[in-house]
Amino acid sequence: MAREVKTINGKKDFSINYYLEGKDQERRYEVVLNLTYMTETESHQLIPYLTSEELDYLKFIRSDKRLRSYLYGRYSLKKAVSQYSNEVKLNNINIKNGIFGQPVIELKSLKNPGGSLSHCETCAASLVYDEALIMGIDIEEVNRNVKKVLENNITTHEASLIKNQVIQETLAFVILWTAKESLAKCLKTGLTVPLELYEVEKIENKEKYFKISFTHFIQYTAFTFVFDTYVCSITYPKLIELSLDITNI
Asked: What is the pLDDT of residues 121-153, one digit of tens each?
């Protein structure tokens, strides 16, 4: 896995790309993971990278918090698309919302790539991948708010998983949450169905990352890693071998 750092307006960019590779018995798949760090003062710099359609959408955003999330989410995914496609002009890349709110990438030189994005208060994460794949990503900060939301919405089995983890309890809840969210993005349902359908069957601590399996969706697995104060989960088909060198992150 390689990574790339560029500059924006003459300064070090606050976005970084990682090149992943997925493979099965028949072929290899290119995947680009992007992580973008957020600050309130930098968000205005991203407006020139929007398309006219995206600029029109800004008129309907009333909250400053929502505006920052929109800008950083779009920027993160555009940076990933740029590396995936070699399109250097980010305002040539249009990101639309699909019928269930999922990102739809529009770029004339690129045929139907898959995309997934997520953001929390201070960081955005996105994936661009071969159209043959199905993937989803979620990122959250490690905080007690996630625990409060989830602790009354987990199954008995998941409660036992958390209890048996040799990690801090709040972190275990956030790992569980991001895995469920990234699975929901694979399925393009969002968290609109009973959460028990996304039940986590197993959490394997691999020292540098966690491998997650699901009770009802055995065809998927999640790769979950912790960095700084964030937890990021990537869910993808179980039959794919995904390369992700955590030491580079």
From this structure: 889 999 999 989 999 999 999 987 777 777 888
Extract the tokens encoding 240. Answer: 């794919």
Question: Which H helix or E strand runs over 75?
Answer: helix 64-85
Amino acid, res. 224: T
Which residue spans within 136-181 are E strands per DSSP?
136-141
Which domains are seen in the chain, by residue range?
A: 3-133 (3.90.470.20), 138-244 (3.90.470.20)
pTM (2 d.p.) = 0.91
Across the strands, what pairs with 137? 234
Give the pLDDT confidence of 28-58 residue by residue, as tens digits: 999 999 999 877 777 788 899 999 999 999 9
Whether the Cβ atoms of residue 137 and residue 118 lie closer than 8 Å to each other: yes
The residue among 122, 106, 32 whose CA lies nearest residue 72 is: 122
